[in-house]
């Protein structure tokens, strides 16, 4: 049975329950299976040898998630070919593609956790009450070891963009 963590996060001030472990710096990142589209899956191995910034958002169709994804899309231009930025949400893959097209987001890879919510559970961000993934940032080195992690305490708040980008740059 998956670990349930209560009282550590809120949505608009109301407590929510996160399912899964709290990952820490130094941990080996769990593998995942996420959807690029309805038929094609992606795993951690698909980004092997790259520094990975994984930006987890509840839904691209909300203001904070929109801003977070646009910000990392802009930052991606300065990080070079050794870095890949992944945005993970439970939005359906075609909704992610529609949003990216409308927003002009072309440097981040959007991946969907809609099928089994297994990423959310493995990374400790699955919100039990909403079946969405809680906002979080993970930076993984080329060997998939966690170099930086930020679990947001309040779902509607922004992550610390500067700290996340600094963690990526420290690995370059």
Automatic annotation (TrEMBL):
EC code(s) of this entry: 1.11.1.24
Annotated Pfam families: Redoxin
GO molecular function term, any single one: peroxidase activity
Active site residues according to the UniProt entry: 65 (cysteine sulfenic acid (-soh) intermediate)
CDD domains assigned: PRX_Atyp2cys
Keywords per UniProt: Antioxidant, Disulfide bond, Oxidoreductase, Peroxidase, Redox-active center
Catalyzed chemical reaction(s): a hydroperoxide + [thioredoxin]-dithiol = an alcohol + [thioredoxin]-disulfide + H2O
The Thioredoxin domain, residue ranges: 23-172
Cross-referenced InterPro entries: Redoxin, Thioredoxin-like_sf, Thioredoxin_domain, TPX, Tpx_CS, Tpx_Peroxidase_subfamily
First-tier enzyme category under EC: oxidoreductase
UniProt subunit comment: Homodimer.
PANTHER family xref list: THIOL PEROXIDASE (PTHR43110)
Family according to the record: Belongs to the peroxiredoxin family. Tpx subfamily.
Protein's job: Thiol-specific peroxidase that catalyzes the reduction of hydrogen peroxide and organic hydroperoxides to water and alcohols, respectively. Plays a role in cell protection against oxidative stress by detoxifying peroxides.
Name by which UniProt lists this protein: Thiol peroxidase
Protein source organism: Saccharibacillus alkalitolerans
């Amino acid at each position: 049975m998956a670990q349930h963590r209560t009282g550590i996060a809120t949505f608009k001030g109301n407590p929510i329950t996160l399912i899964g472990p709290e990952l820490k710096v130094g941990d080996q990142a769990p593998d995942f299976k996420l959807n690029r589209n309805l038929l094609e899956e992606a795993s951690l191995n698909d980004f092997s040898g790259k520094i990975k910034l994984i930006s987890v958002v509840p839904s691209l169709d909300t203001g904070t998630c929109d801003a977070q994804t646009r910000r990392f899309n802009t930052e991606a231009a300065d990080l070079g070919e050794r870095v890949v930025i992944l945005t993970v949400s439970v939005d359906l893959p075609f909704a992610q593609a529609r949003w990216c097209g409308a927003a002009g987001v072309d440097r981040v890879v959007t991946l969907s956790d809609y099928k089994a919510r297994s990423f959310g559970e493995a990374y400790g961000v699955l919100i039990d009450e909403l079946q969405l993934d809680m906002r979080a940032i993970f930076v993984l080195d080329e060997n998939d070891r966690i170099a930086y992690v930020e679990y947001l305490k309040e779902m509607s708040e922004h992550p610390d963009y500067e700290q996340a980008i600094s963690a990526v740059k420290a690995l370059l």
